Known about the structure:
The structure holds two protein chains of two kinds.
Chain A: H1 9-28, H2 42-68, H3 73-105, H4 114-135, H5 140-166, H6 186-228
Chain B: H1 6-47, H2 56-62
Amino acid sequence: MNERRPSVVLPVTAVVAVTAALGMAFLYAPTEALQGEVQRIFYVHVPSAWIGYIAFFVVAASSVVVLTRRRDWERWDRIAVSSAEVGLVFLTLSMATGPIWGRRVWGVWWVWDARLTSALVLWLIYAAYLVFRSVQAPGERRARLAAVIGIIGAVNIPVVHFAVVWWRTLHPEPTVISPSGPQLPGEMLLTLMASFAALLVLFAALLGIRLRLERTRNKVDSMLGAAHA
Amino acid sequence: MPDPSVPWLAAGFIVVWLVLGAYLVRLHRAQRRLDSRLDELATRRQHSPPATPESPQDGERASPSD
């Protein structure tokens, strides 16, 4: 496949899926009785956080492969860094929309409760992961050290998710992934699932674009390395 | 009476588009920069004289003890 001509199938599918999900969020899902229209932020805020969890799980899984393989670790390192960056974008979406919703509903932008604080820690770990990579010289040493950070960061994912169950928080308890099952009306649950599916396709599309960038970067690095050898 | 929470909803979605838009622009610029760097390196490699064992540089590398 020509590196200069990326496939447009996934990006186009992502645009269609996100448009359909937005249509459902604004036209199909009912208006929440107490919170009003602002509750529709839910259809971006929650799935973005889930995509962030998935992305960081991919980072951790790829990092394990980087640490255990002697050969072909470069490919898994590319997947890890690409997933970390795209995951950080999705977690940023969740963490940026949360305070806007919270300010309207709770009356505050931010509280240092267990959910918000652990989510911020997760964001900071993967931001540190990317900063670490950007200041280190490319190579196996960087890949292995970054892999350790990638795995440690993923340990925080269940802490973020269960923080609202384990501790008393201002943030509400899970309404979908909870032991007693989904607590949402049918239309809201369907819209949430459609938004999640659309953002998952968007994640896959962005990951593909980011992986292509990383492959090109590796080629440039190897050509520069060959020129300086 | 219009819902007073609508501006908050709008603010939320504006933030989403700004973050995603900024990231896409960043990815596009980075890819373009790397593509032109790759072209530049490939052109330089084509135009540079082929390395031979007789060339002084390679001769030096072949016998580091010298």
